[in-house]
Structures are given as structure tokens and as C-alpha cells.
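quick q for whoever's on today - can somebody do inverse folding on this one?? i tried earlier but teh output was garbage lol. C-alpha cells:
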């Protein structure tokens, strides 16, 4: 039996394209990007943070570490609390809260 007679073989370009929810995936990607940026950006800005707060870079690093620890400790309880809620509403609410927190 040759490979060309195999019924499971699909020719390139002949497979039906899946309709992906582009808007939903874009929102999810944007949310992930914002969360990662808000968690990692302060580590790169330690000298500016220290200068702005008039503290040493070591103390600024400790402040960033405390913030990260708070995020870690809040993640599990928040996941448990929002487990029964609709995911889209939680995601939109989280994004709105994040935007509001970043731009008072």
C-alpha cells in the first residue's frame, strides 16, 4: 500500500480552517500581557523607583518582593472565590480593576 492511497492523508491547503474566536483570544492575550508586565516591570525599574521614593535600591527591591509575595498569597484564595463565576465576567472585571488601579 502506498502513501498516496492512504485515506487519512490530507493535502496541504485542503483542510478546512477552524474558525477561531479572534476577539476572545485577543482579549485573553492582552490580559495576559498586562498581568505579566505589571508583575515584572518594577524589577527593571528599581533605580528609578529608589530615586523617586528617596530610598536605596535594596529597599526598593524588598518592596517589589513584598508586592510579589502578596500576589502569590492572594492567587489561591482569589481562584477559589471566583471558581463558580462566569470566566468572561471575571476576566473583564479583572481588566477593569487593573486599568483603574494603574490610572487613578
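ok took a stab at it. sequence:
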Amino acid at each position: 500500500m502506498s502513501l498516496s492511497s492512504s485515506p487519512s492523508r490530507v493535502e496541504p491547503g485542503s483542510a478546512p480552517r477552524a474558525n477561531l474566536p479572534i476577539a476572545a483570544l485577543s482579549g485573553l492575550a492582552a490580559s495576559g500581557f498586562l498581568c505579566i508586565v505589571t508583575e515584572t516591570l518594577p524589577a527593571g525599574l528599581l533605580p528609578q523607583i529608589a530615586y523617586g521614593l528617596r530610598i536605596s535600591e535594596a529597599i526598593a527591591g524588598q518592596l517589589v518582593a513584598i508586592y510579589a509575595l502578596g500576589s502569590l498569597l492572594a492567587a489561591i484564595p482569589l481562584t477559589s472565590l471566583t471558581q463558580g463565576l462566569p470566566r468572561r465576567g471575571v476576566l473583564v472585571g479583572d481588566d477593569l480593576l487593573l486599568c483603574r488601579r494603574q490610572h487613578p
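fwiw The chain has a mean pLDDT of 84. also Helices lie at 22-44, 46-53, 57-81, 87-102. so keep that in mind when u check it
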